[in-house]
Structures are given as C-alpha cells and as structure tokens.
Amino acid sequence: MAGTSKGEGRIGLLNGFAAYGMWGLVPLFWPLLKPAGAVEILAHRMVWSLAFVVVALAVVRRWAWAGELLRQPRRLGLVAIAAAVITVNWGVYIWSVNSGHVVEASLGYFINPLVTIAMGVLLLKERLRPAQWAAVGVGAAAVVVLTVGYGRPPWISLCLAFSFAVYGLVKKKVNLGGVESLAAETAIQFLPALGYLLWLSADGGSTFADEGLGHSALLAATGVVTALPLVCFGAAAIRVPLSTLGLLQYLAPVFQFLLGIVYFHEAMPPERWAGFALVWLALTLLTWDALRTARRARARIARSSAGAGDVTAAPLAEARPAGVTAARSAEDERVTPDMAAPELAAQNAPVPDPLDAQA
Questions:
Q1: What is the C-alpha to C-alpha distance for residues 64 and 57, in angstroms, rounded to an integer?
Q2: Can you tell me the distance from the alpha carbon of 230 to that of 342, in angstroms, rounded to the nearest whole number?
Q3: What is the SS3 assignment for 29-92?
Q4: What whole-number distance in Å separates Cα of residue 142 and Cα of residue 305?
Q5: Where are the strands (E) in the chain, listed by range?
Q6: What is the pLDDT of residues 37-87, one digit of tens each?
Q7: In this structure, what DSSP letter does residue 126 have?
Q8: What HEC string does 263-300 produce?
Q9: Which listed residue, of 14, 176, 262, 306, carries a Cα 20 to 30 Å from 170's Cα?
C-alpha cells in the first residue's frame, strides 16, 4: 500500500507539473495563430473547446450532471455568469500576449491570490490573519509602484486577476467538476462564437480557410490547448494535497514572466522590477502564513486524535489546503478538476480554481 501511495503521489505531482507547465508555456502558442485577430482566436477557442469536451464526456459517458443543471435555473444562471467572465479573461489574455504584453499578463496571475483574498473579505466577510493583511497591503503598494512604472494602471494585470477571481467565486457556488463546467460554459459561449465566425467568414475577414491547412489545424487545436491541462490537473488534484497544488500554481506565471523577458524581449525597467519584487514579497508572506497555519492545524488534530485514541484523524489533515481553517466543511475543500483556474479561487488559500483554464 505504501508503494502504491508513493507511486500515486509521483503520478499526481507529474500531472501537476504538466498542467501548470502547459498553462505557463501557452504564450508560445497564441502568436502562432496570427494573422487571426484576438477575437477570432477567442471564438475558435470557444467552439473547439466545446467539441473537445463533448467527445471526452461521450467517451466516459458522464452526462447525468447536464440534466440536473438544466433543472436548476439558479445554477444555470451562475454558469452563464462564469462563461461571461471567463470570456473576458480569455480574450484579454490572448490580446495581451499577441500585443507584446506577456509580462504584464503574467502579473495578473501573480496577484490573483491577493485579489481573491481581498474579495473574500469584501464579499464573503471573511476574517484575515495579520500576515494576510500584510500581504494584501504589500500587493496594493505593488500596484501603485507598477502604475508609476507603466505610466498607467496595470489594467491588463488587474483585469485578468479580477476576472479570474470572480470566475472562481462563481464556480465555487456552481460546484461542478472541471470538464463538466467547461462543457457547460462553452455550450453557452458556442452559439455567439459560431455566429461571429460565420459572420466573419461571410464578411471576408476570416483566416480559417484562407491561411492554409496548418493555420486551420492550429485554430482547431485551441480546444486541445484549453482542455488538455484540465485532464492533467484533474489527475493531480485527486492524488496530491491542495497545499502542494497551491505552490505548483506559481509555476504558470513564473514561466510566463520568464518567456516575456527572455523570449519576447519585453522591457523591464527598474521601477517594474520593484513592483514585481513587492508582488513576490506579498506572495511569500501569503505562502509562509498558509504553510504555518496548515502545520498548526495538523499539530492540533494530531494532539486531539492522540488524546482520543483516534489514529485516523491525523493523516486526514494532510489533505487540508494551506490556509483553510479547521472549521471549514468537507464540501468547501472538495477539489474537482479547469484552468486553471481552475478550481477554490474565492477561498483564503492561495489555490486557483481547477478550471481556471488559465490563459
């Protein structure tokens, strides 16, 4: 059993690296779709993502959730909101990458945990620990420094961070699995996206059939690029603790940041370095506090289980995500395979929603 558990843990870790690695390297993909514009790429992403997940669901024969969702108007409305918010997130990200703003886009996913915590306080009336308040304060100072550095507010970063945080908050209420959620959201996006592509083709502005078979194949591959990381994330989420996923999530913006500087040669004057340094300091505070809180929670459970003679409670604490209080219900801790992002974005723990479908 121990060997099997270790093997499962390694498989989960590899899938986690694969998921966040793909999300981190996705800026290399969007420029390949030029001369298609950001809106055309976005529309193709919606259409082909639905095609991919429908095939996946047909293979595993998992359709019961669809009937239940259709009988619940409130949840269906929340799915529609999630679809609208992730449309903004996807569109802004594609445009920013293909317009030479990869570094600023990566900043959005760095500050997303801070935005998530701030929204938890404002909307969910959650109480923060001192270290979390300090992290949010340092993050706010970073935005001010970056506003000076860019000569404007870092609106790309803020748009990505807030849209992703709202998306996670809504998805927490919907409570659907990652693939199912993507299917529901892209089903809502499908008709407007297809209608736009048909109009674009009739107007002579479509590149799908005019730039060769390779270009058409790349546009169709947007569905795979969106959904494949979900599969890997789902495999990771059921095998490794959420605290581990919370640390792995930083791989994606780190890769994006490095690509922006090393591969796309974007400028990083001193004031931008200062702003990013403040963001990284805030994330360090947040991570340190989450790990410390998790250790204390495990120690308390271990002591209480030892006193009660219960030898099964302590191992269960390992699965509790960093930063989550002991009083949180099991339903709030359940992980269901995005996305990114995705997956939990409204919780205090710096873990993105699994369906994030980041980027």
A1: 11
A2: 8
A3: CHHHHCCCCHHHHHHHHHHHHHHHHHHHHHHHCCCHHHHHHHCCHHHHHHHHHHHHHHHHHHHH
A4: 43
A5: none
A6: 999 999 999 999 999 999 989 988 889 899 999 999 999 999 999 999 999
A7: P
A8: HCCCCCCHHHHHHHHHHHHHHHHHHHHHHHHHHHHHHH
A9: 14
Under 8 Å CB-to-CB from 283, ≥6 apart: which residues? Answer: 110, 113, 114, 135, 250, 350
Q: How far is CA 306 from the centre of its chain?
A: 38
The answer, as to whether pTM is greater than 0.90, is no
Q: What percent of the chain has pLDDT over 90?
A: 52
Q: Is the peptide bond before 229 cis (omega within 30 degrees of 0)?
A: no
Give the C-alpha separation, 118 to 96, whole Å: 25
CA 116 to chain centre: 12
Residue 246's region, left for phi above 0, alpha for psi from -120 to 50, else beta, is: alpha
pLDDT tens digits for 299-342? Answer: 888 888 776 654 444 443 333 433 333 333 333 333 333 333 33
